[in-house]
Amino acid sequence: MIKILLSQFKQYTRAAVLTPVFTGLEALLELLIPFITAKIIDEGIEAGNLQKIYLYGGIMLIMAFLSLISGVMAGKNAAEASSGFASNLRESMYENIQKFSFSNIDKFSTAGLVTRMTTDVTNVQNAAQMILRIASRAPLMLILSMVMCFFINAKLSMIFLVAMVILALALYLIMSKTTVIFKQVFSRYDDLNGEVQENVTAIRVVKAFVREDFEVNKFQKAAGMLYDLSVKAESRLAFNNPVMMLVIYGCMIALSWFGAQFIVVGDLTTGELTSLFSYVMSMMMSLMMLSMVFVMITMSAASCVRISEVLEEKADLVNPKQPVMEIPDGRIDFNHVEFSYKHGSGEEVLHDIDFHVDAGETIGIIGGTGSGKSSLVNLISRLYDVDKGQVMVGGRDVRTYDMEALRNQVAVVLQKNVLFSGTILDNLRWGKEDATEEECREACRQACADEFIDSFPDGYNTWIEQGGTNVSGGQKQRLCIARALLKKPKVLILDDSTSAVDTATDAKIREAFREKIPGTTKIIIAQRISSVKDADRIMVLEDGRINGFDTHENLLKTNQIYQEIYETQQKGGGDFDQPS
Question: Residue 550 and residue 558: Cα distance in Å, rounded?
């Protein structure tokens, strides 16, 4: 985990190395200033030597200026390194997420991924900056201060050793209790972000059902649990400063008491005692800074683990060593396919699926909720891999193709249609980046989307809000179909993608498919028999198995499930899953 995180410094490694160098120089110069102060007192003030005061005073000013410059450079480099580190982390996580298959994405919630890329990265960034500066400065200050104290008076320095042992023990007890709680805190951030995301996404439904109070209560409950854990963690950390102050003031009192006695007997000078006070403050402040580092590391440890989980996650689906780049045609073959979402351990979703489709055929798929319709078509574009058997496109196993080449030729309009913020043309060109406006218009004519686009004041330059919230469900579906058609695919899959379209428009779209893209294999998943009855063949799925696969007319004669669906919808039942 540490190796993976450190590798994210990349081009900012130089700044990360320079930070402790400048920090060390700053600390060294600061530590020499009390030593020079003692010289001014003993050799200048008490001896009445004005020349020594000027000499050592000048040296002190030069050292203070150099220390200031070193501190500024250390801060600049630390900011550059930590900010660059955070930027690289986010980019690497985002890039890796783009490679995830659907099964990889299923392991992480959307809210969890958002938290990892925001809150967790910010925590790690703050910890990195603190480690680069304070974790290099504090130990150096501590060690050098102790060396200087022993150099001045070894007996009095024993006070600091005792104080450090007491302080280290107290900090260990505080941190060990707090680490466990912080791990729970960040998991609660996921819950909180999940509540916000769900509410904002479904805000129209919330308002339509007047469930604002219910949603507020849910959020308050999630926020309350996060509050309780945060207070619990911070209340333990609150002991940090009082313990620190107790040790510091204890050291000062002990040093004053014993130091005065040493001065009386002549074993210590006033200047040396003054220096010891400065060094003891440096040591105690170093310990305080180290305790802050420990707190930050404690808080960020859980974040580091969560970020590493995303970075270390390997895509389940990868290209073969020598991928095939060309898909010859739209033939589809399923050879005794078995499939489950958790390979080898999950419940099978598809059982012994075996069928064959010629290029250019139109295939309808119909079946109840959970029958495996979407799972089946997801295998064609290799969004998932089969457990057993073989899925073939163009006469080759889909696992032999380059995935990008395959998905460019197997266009899928998914059940949940997604549009992005931008103009209509911007959204259409997701299908073909360099598509001309005329190509976009032709695709929209085939998808019957031109009818409503032309009614907009800005036409194809109409702005689409994020998620397509400013167009209707049917309009969104037609735009998504047009986007897929722009690819000119060998296989076109419509996963219940005309459910929000009226039957007349649905019929027009199917007619356009027959006339404009006769060579494209078309697979249409639908709830309405009217959407698939003109298909060359219709597949009836039940509990992940093929119950029937024939023409509309033959299924009406031979397939009981299809007969029941047809009769229900003819009587006006409408919904596929509604019993007759």
Answer: 9
**Long-range pairs, 348-351, Cβ under 8 A, ≥24:** 348/387, 348/544, 349/375, 349/544, 350/375, 350/376, 350/379, 350/544, 350/545, 351/543, 351/544, 351/545
Q: What is the model's pTM?
A: 0.64
Q: What is the pLDDT of residue 338?
A: 92
Query: pLDDT above 70 covers what percent of the chain?
Result: 95
Strand partners, 367: 541
Write the DSSP string, 63-95.
Answer: HHHHHHHHHHHHHHHHHHHHHHHHHHHHHHHHH
Half-sphere exposure of 481 (CA within 13 A, CB side): 31
Name which of 568, 405, 413, 392 is nearest 495 in CA terms.
Answer: 413
H-run or E-run covering 492: strand 491-495
The DSSP-derived string for 351-405 is EEEEEEE-TT-EEEEEE-TTSSHHHHHHHHTTSS--SEEEEEETTEEGGGB-HHH
Strand order in the sheet with 537-542: 410-413, 491-495, 521-525, 362-367, 537-542, 545-550
Asked if residue 1 has pLDDT above 70, the reply is yes
Nearest alpha carbon to residue 115 among 255, 222, 3: 222
CA 433 from centre of chain: 27
- Find out whether 24 and 55 touch, Cβ atoms under 8 Å: no
> Can you tell me the distance from the alpha carbon of 212 to that of 204, in angstroms, rounded to the nearest whole number?
11
In the predicted structure, residue 172 carries a pLDDT above the cut 80: no
Q: What is the pLDDT of residue 365?
A: 93
Contact between 539 and 363 under an 8 Å Cβ cutoff? The reply is yes
Beta bridge partners of 356: 333
| pLDDT above 90: percentage of residues in the chain | 22
CA 239 – CA 241 distance, rounded (Å): 6
Q: What are the structure tokens assigned to 89, written together?
A: 């982390």
**What does the alpha-carbon distance between residue 316 and residue 99 come to, in Å, rounded to a whole number?**
9
